[in-house]
Structures are given as structure tokens and as C-alpha cells.
Amino acid sequence: MERSLPWLLLLLCFVLQSRAQPDNTGFISIDCGIPPKTSYVDNETKISYAADDAFTDGGSNHNVSLEYVVGPRGSQRYDNVRAFPNGARNCYTLRSLVAGIKYLIRATFFYGNYDGLNKLPVFHLYIGVNFWAMVNITSLGVVYRYEAIVVVPDDFVQVCLINIGAGTPFISGLDLRPLENRLYPQVNATQGLLLLMRRNFGPTDNSLEIRYPDDPHDRFWGTWDSSSSNDWKEISTASRVDYSVGDIFDPPTAVMQTAVTPRNASDNIRFSWEPVPQPNDPTPAYTAIFHFSELELLTNNASREFYINLNGEPLGVYTPKHLTAGGTYDSEPFERTSSYNISINATANSTLPPLINAVEIFSIISTAVISTDSQDASSMMAIKDKYQVKKNWMGDPCIPKTFAWDKLTCSYPNSSRARIISLNLSSSGLSADISSSFGNLKALQYLDLSNNSLTGSIPDVLSQLPSLRVLDLTGNQLSGSIPSGILKRIQDGSLNVRYGNNPNQCINGNSCKAAKKKSKLAIYIVIPAVLVVLIASVTTLFCLLRRKKQGPMNNSLKQQNERSTSTSHVLRNSGYGDNVSLRLENRRFTYKELEKITNKFKRVLGRGGFVSHPNPAPPYNGT
Length: 623
Ligand SMILES: *[C@@H]1O[C@H](CO)[C@@H](O)[C@H](O)[C@H]1NC(C)=O
Ligand SMILES: *[C@@H]1O[C@H](CO)[C@@H](O)[C@H](O)[C@H]1NC(C)=O
Ligand SMILES: *[C@@H]1O[C@H](CO)[C@@H](O)[C@H](O)[C@H]1NC(C)=O
Ligand SMILES: *[C@@H]1O[C@H](CO)[C@@H](O)[C@H](O)[C@H]1NC(C)=O
Ligand SMILES: *[C@@H]1O[C@H](CO)[C@@H](O)[C@H](O)[C@H]1NC(C)=O
Ligand SMILES: *[C@@H]1O[C@H](CO)[C@@H](O)[C@H](O)[C@H]1NC(C)=O
Ligand SMILES: *[C@@H]1O[C@H](CO)[C@@H](O)[C@H](O)[C@H]1NC(C)=O
Ligand SMILES: *[C@@H]1O[C@H](CO)[C@@H](O)[C@H](O)[C@H]1NC(C)=O
Ligand SMILES: *[C@@H]1O[C@H](CO)[C@@H](O)[C@H](O)[C@H]1NC(C)=O
Ligand SMILES: *[C@@H]1O[C@H](CO)[C@@H](O)[C@H](O)[C@H]1NC(C)=O
Ligand SMILES: *[C@@H]1O[C@H](CO)[C@@H](O)[C@H](O)[C@H]1NC(C)=O
Ligand SMILES: *[C@@H]1O[C@H](CO)[C@@H](O)[C@H](O)[C@H]1NC(C)=O
Description:
Blueprint (H helix, E strand, L loop, with lengths): L3 H15 L9 E4 L7 E3 L6 E3 L9 E4 L16 E4 L5 E6 L7 E9 L11 E6 L2 E7 L6 E9 L5 E10 L3 E2 L1 E7 L11 E10 L21 E2 L8 E5 L5 E2 L9 H4 L1 E5 L6 E5 L12 E7 L13 E5 L2 E6 L5 E7 L9 E7 L11 E9 L7 H14 L20 E4 L7 E6 L6 E3 L12 E3 L4 E3 L14 E3 L6 E3 L2 H8 L4 E3 L5 E3 L5 H6 L1 H32 L2 H10 L6 E3 L16 E2 L1 H10 L23
Parallel strand pairs: 14-15, 17-23, 23-35, 27-29, 28-30, 29-31, 31-33, 32-34
Antiparallel strand pairs: 1-13, 2-3, 4-5, 5-12, 6-11, 7-10, 7-13, 8-9, 8-11, 10-14, 10-36, 14-25, 16-18, 19-24, 20-23, 20-25, 21-22, 21-24, 26-27
Helix pairs in contact: 1-6
Bound molecules: 2-acetamido-2-deoxy-beta-D-glucopyranose (12 copies).
Subcellular location: Membrane
Protein name: Malectin-like domain-containing protein
Membrane topology: Single-pass membrane protein
């Protein structure tokens, strides 16, 4: 027993930690729609994907239509979805985050005719209370990927799907990755980035996608469309490409080992993109990050130096350093325009043509809408979980007002976060004891819990709610006497408590006999309760010690955040270039490409029979 105790505690730690929490890299990786409480490890990345039941309580699971089932492993993520036919707003809540740091949040959508209706939906995505993107599914067999980089203000974040009356929202996958604050300096508390494309120049294999573990931040680096690459040729190196000290974009070395240069040495590198309209913004503002590294060892008299131009106006001049990743970005978004033409051309002094290793292009999204007070929101989520309240209790409790939770009233101060000032859960079928979370709704003025099946005693923490004026506990199964703090508030007239019709309540000592009869029962309850508390305390202590030993992720993040000097160059202007178009569908890949990927990784494309595999693997039999 003594020997097995640590193991038991360890197991308990895992049980307690595994639910809805980041793993030790801080990653949260969800495969929406797989059976509840299951998980699997992705063959390629070794990332563990969890079912989504611990993150949302809306919607239902569906398998994609048979002809779109890619296989048991690999692209397993796109075999099933969670769909939300009910409710205007449905959300995922990702917990145990570090408030105030940057996160990459990525949602993926593969329709695959899961409902057999062949009906492609359009819906809106929100990060917390801020608009993220319009999801416009225009093909059954395409994976749509939406990625944002934002500062998360609380220790949790919600990702919400909004039904706009244009089809049922659904989702295939949801990822969250923490980023050190030195990365993506364009991102701050009020402004985030929405990825348009992240391209690795060089490889001609279209299906090649570099991600975790090559990229420790698990960004996806796709290749450009080879049909528009005829002006370019690849150069590459097998040597390691190092980061500059304090590089603020951390491109993975595998991406920086390849580059393109014009096939005709006197030509330019040109590519372009067009703005993707959003419902509230037909021409979003864009920004780009250009990654460069010299891959050739230059002789003394050789030099490589080039201009980066946007729509014919120079953004800056750059000289790549040998086997060192560096980059440029513009601290201001580019001027809004109907097309963005980039051209990179050699300066008069340069003996070598220009090159480029990678580019990331983002539009700017506002994250200026402020959510409900963090503690109020967390408390409401805890209350919702405890009493399994359904109603419309999804997403932020107060914001936007049109989606505010039923049964509560919020105040909306002009210069601070919304607060919950009244909560009326009368006749709501609540059972169990009164949650101490009510005591964390610090702005509460009115609390009505009448006509439920609440048991146990009245928690004295309620007396510490400074603004509480009415507490209605009528018609429950509460027992014990009224705690002294509340009595005091009753006596000084600051709190009106209604507690009639609680058969076991002893008020002024007169009806306590009933309660005394139950004292034996109380012992039966108390002893196991004490045991549970004891075990919980020991476990928590054990878990804490264990975590301390491992070094909490927060600390390492903070340390990394302190790295700040940068050798990256900040460009001053914005401009625009020319016309070799990079393909814009970088957030998605076609089913054909999926096939290629699956082929490449020898994944089983079983049941659909779309692809003839050289060595067909046996059909997948579940588990
Ligand atoms: C999805 O398919 C699997 C096996 O192919 C099956 O076990 C599961 O019940 C299906 N899920 C739904 C929601 O139909
Ligand atoms: C969705 O995309 C299609 C094709 O690009 C376009 O025709 C349609 O207008 C878009 N829907 C919305 C609501 O913007
Ligand atoms: C975020 O950056 C934008 C653009 O530089 C700036 O206008 C805004 O004030 C910044 N917000 C905060 C909270 O620093
Ligand atoms: C290379 O480009 C220059 C300038 O655009 C042009 O004059 C020359 O003919 C090109 N050479 C070849 C081989 O295409
Ligand atoms: C660089 O120097 C080498 C000899 O050291 C010479 O052969 C070559 O032509 C020179 N190149 C240029 C561009 O001056
Ligand atoms: C290269 O770009 C610079 C800066 O925009 C410009 O002055 C120059 O004319 C360009 N050269 C060519 C050959 O396009
Ligand atoms: C070219 O070289 C000369 C002499 O080294 C220098 O003065 C000039 O600034 C350089 N021009 C560019 C565009 O780098
Ligand atoms: C809050 O803003 C509204 C409208 O902007 C204004 O009418 C109201 O007086 C403001 N309230 C306070 C307390 O500043
Ligand atoms: C609270 O809700 C109950 C039942 O839903 C209702 O009868 C009562 O009037 C409400 N209280 C207030 C102050 O709105
Ligand atoms: C108490 O709640 C039940 C449902 O939970 C409801 O049917 C009943 O009318 C309520 N009684 C009062 C007095 O509000
Ligand atoms: C970008 O290039 C295309 C093709 O050359 C051209 O039609 C378009 O006007 C250019 N855009 C801008 C803003 O210069
Ligand atoms: C994934 O890994 C498992 C176990 O190693 C293996 O049986 C399976 O064939 C792999 N699947 C793919 C698609 O590589």
C-alpha cells in the first residue's frame, strides 16, 4: 500500500489534470467529434488529440460521409465533426491558460457531407467576444483552416461558432499553442493577426507541409503553387540555419534551409495576394513577415542585397546573413488596396540575384471588445458546470448583450469590464449544496435561489458580497443555522434574506430538533467527506510538488518572454509589388492534396477507395 500510494496519487494527478487542460508543451489539441473521453496520438507529430466533450456541452457528433473518410490514422482529424444545430452561439472553453500571453488558435473545418444534405454552411467564428473570421465552406472535400494569433486576457479562452442563418455551424478540429511574447510583436491586447498564408519557398512538392516538431510552435508552413513558380529556382542547404539572437519570428530551420531565387539572374522575385473580404470589413488591412537567410557561401567580391517593394514602393533593403534566419516586417499594416504586389529586386551594388526563404501574410483583427470581468465569468462557468445548467449559457455571460445569459443581469460600466449584478435561478431545478462560486460574484446585488432542491448549509462567504442586498433561499432543503456573517448583515439591515420553507433549517434555534435527529446521518456524511478532503489535499500537494519539480510552463514562458533584442529589421513603409500570384487558398488544402499527403505518409485510404495505394493496408476495424 505504501509503495503503491505515490502511484495512486500520480494517477489521480493525471486524472485531475488531463481533463480539458494543456499538455506539458502548453498545447491543447482537440479532435472534434470523436467519441467522448477518447484520445489518440497522431502518427506524424506525436501530438495527442483529445475528444471535445470536456470543452463544450453543445452540439452532437457526426462521421463524415463514407466517401470522405480518409482513414484510421493520419488525417483521422477530418473523419468526424461536431455540429451545432441548436442555439445561436456555441462555444468551446479552453482552460488553464496563462492570462495576458499570446496564443496561436487554429480551427479546422472539413464538411465531408457529414449530414448527407450536401448543404455548405456559412457561419461566424469568435475568439471570446471578438470577431475572428467568417467561415465560408464552399467545397465538400476541402479542409478549411483558420488561424489567429491573439493575446488572451484571461486564464481561459472561448472559441465560439455563431449561427447566422446560413447553415449549421460545425467544426473538425481546434488547436491552441502558447507563444512567447517576443514573437509576433504586431500582436497586443487590442489587436491580433488572422493568417492568410504561411509559405515556405523552395520545395516543389506541393503536399509538403512543415509543422510540429520541426516547428516547435506547430505552425503549418505550406509551399507555394508550383504552377506559378516558373520564374524561380530553388536553392537549399543541408547545413543548419540558426536563429539570430532574439529572432522574433522563430522560423523553423527546415523552412529556412530552402529558398527561391529568380531563374533569370537579372529578374525579380514577384508574388501577390488579394484581400479576403470579411463581413464587417471588405478590404482588411494586411501585414507581412519576410524571412531570409543566405544559403550560399559568398566569395569576397560577391554580395547579395535587395529591395523589397510593395506595389512598386520600396519597403526596405535587406542583406541576408549566411545560415542565419532573419526577417523584416512592417510595424504598421500596409495601406489598404485591392491587390498586394510584392517584388524583390537586387540593388545596383548586389552581384547576386535576390532570394527569399519564407513569408507569412496576415490581416489585422481587432480584439478591442472587452469581455465580462474574469472572475465573474469564471464563477458563472463553475456554477453552470456544478448545476449542469443548460439554458443559453454559452460563451461570455454578458457580451454581446444579444447573447447574454438568461437569468442574469449585467452592468456595463463605460470604462471597465461588464459585471454580473443579479442572478435569478429561482425554480431552476438546482440540487446539491450552494456553490461557493456564488461568493466570487463580487458585484452581485440580488441572488435568488428560491424553489430549488439545494441542500447543506448556507455558506458564510455570501456575507462577503459587498453589494448583495437580497438573498432569496426560500423553498429548498437547506439545513443548519444561519452563519454569523449573514446574521450580522441582516441585523445591520444591509441584507434582506428570505429563507422560509426550508424544513431542516434551524432559525433562532427553534426548529433545530429536526436537524439533530439527522446527526447520525451527518456522521456518515462527514467522515467520508473528511476523507475525501484529506485525500484531495494530499493529492493536490503531491501534484503541486510534482509540477514544481518539472518546472511550471508559465515560468519558462516568462523567461523566454524576456528575450527581446532583435536583429530583425523593421521596415518603414508599406507598398505593393507585382504579379506572379501565390495561391491564396493557403488556409485550405484540397482533397487531392490530402490524398497526396496521405499517400506520402502511407496512410490508409481505406473505405472511400478514392486512392489506389501501392500497398493497400487492411481496413480499419475501429478501436
Ligand atoms: C462513427 O463511425 C464509427 C466507426 O466507424 C462508429 O463507431 C461511430 O459510432 C460513428 N459515430 C457516429 C456519431 O455515427
Ligand atoms: C462564400 O464564398 C463564395 C465563393 O467564393 C461566394 O460566392 C459567397 O458570396 C461567399 N459567401 C458569403 C456569405 O460571403
Ligand atoms: C496595439 O497596437 C496598435 C497598433 O500599433 C495600437 O494602435 C494599439 O494602441 C495597441 N494596443 C495596446 C493595448 O497597446
Ligand atoms: C533575363 O531578364 C532580362 C531582363 O528582364 C532579359 O533582358 C533577358 O533576356 C533575360 N534572359 C533570359 C535568358 O531570359
Ligand atoms: C570575383 O573574384 C573572382 C576571383 O577572385 C573572379 O573570378 C570573379 O570574376 C569576381 N566576380 C565579380 C562579380 O567581380
Ligand atoms: C528595384 O527596386 C527599387 C526600389 O523600389 C527601384 O528603385 C528599382 O528601379 C528597381 N529595379 C528594378 C530593376 O526593378
Ligand atoms: C552601394 O555601395 C556604395 C559604396 O559601398 C554605397 O555608398 C551605397 O550606399 C550602396 N548602395 C546601396 C543601395 O546599398
Ligand atoms: C457612459 O457612456 C454613455 C454613452 O456614451 C453616456 O451617456 C454615459 O453618461 C456614460 N456614463 C458614465 C458613467 O460615464
Ligand atoms: C425570479 O424568477 C422567478 C421565476 O422565474 C420570478 O417569479 C421572479 O419574479 C424573478 N425575480 C425577479 C426579481 O425578477
Ligand atoms: C417551483 O419550481 C417548480 C419547477 O421546478 C415549478 O413547477 C413551480 O411552479 C415552482 N413554484 C413556485 C412557487 O415558484
Ligand atoms: C498588381 O499587379 C497586377 C498585375 O500586374 C495589376 O493588375 C495590379 O494593378 C497591381 N496592383 C497594384 C495595387 O498595383
Ligand atoms: C500509425 O502508427 C501505428 C502504430 O505504430 C501503425 O500501426 C499505423 O499503421 C500507422 N498509421 C499510419 C497511417 O502510418
